Amino acid sequence: MSTVRLEFPLPHVALITLDRPKRLNALTLELLEDFRAALDRIESDADCRAVVLTGAGRAFCAGLDLVDSASLLDLSGAGGVQKGMSIQKPFSALVPRLHALPQPVVAAINGPAAGGGLALALGADVRVAARSALFLDAFIELGLSGCELGLSYLLPRLIGMSRAAELILTGRHIDAEEAERIGLVSRIVEDGEAVPAALKIAERIAAHAPFGSRMTKQVLWTNLDAPCLQSAIELEARTQVLSMFTRDFGEQVVARREKRTPRYQDQ
Length: 267
Hints:
alpha/beta; 2-enoyl-CoA Hydratase, Chain A, domain 1; 11 helices; 9 strands
């Protein structure tokens, strides 16, 4: 994988780094393929319990690479619509693929997150921002719809419809302080500390039983669309009972009583 680095800096924790720093980690088809390969490897790794996602250099991800992807954007001539839909498919699969990953994902937003980069950040379960981070829905600036790659679904749910509409329709950027104030990120850290802070969160997640963490992520995202409170509670109840039948439930109870680190067996 030449555009994505996959490392395991802590026990049970993976670190994915978008690695095109000279292009601000802008998205290309090659990067998307490398990113998918990294997620496939993590998904099949029973030892991995949490993931940190970041960008190399001074940016998280600047969105679509308009230079390296220029040929993709030429949809003139016969078959333009079909070509466009074919090209769009791997980009549109980006955020759903993150959601389908069993392990919780913590985004360490170390710099600008624009367009597709913003969508990628929103696809994570937890977001930590460096003080110099910027957030921008850049699609409207290109004469395109500002609603792409899941932004119209995720952003209003995170910060409310009015704020989301303003950001998507105007294309203005927001800094880390505003992002924290409106709930786009959970915390701000100093520049250079986003990855260490995200790793600490991931390490804490990884300390819990893998099945419990995975079910928590799944229920959170599923109940985001629950039609009512009772439907959400019903899913929670069934998942809780499933968790009680794992070996790790009993092990975690005993480990807490004995004041020792649990020895998990279930994945």
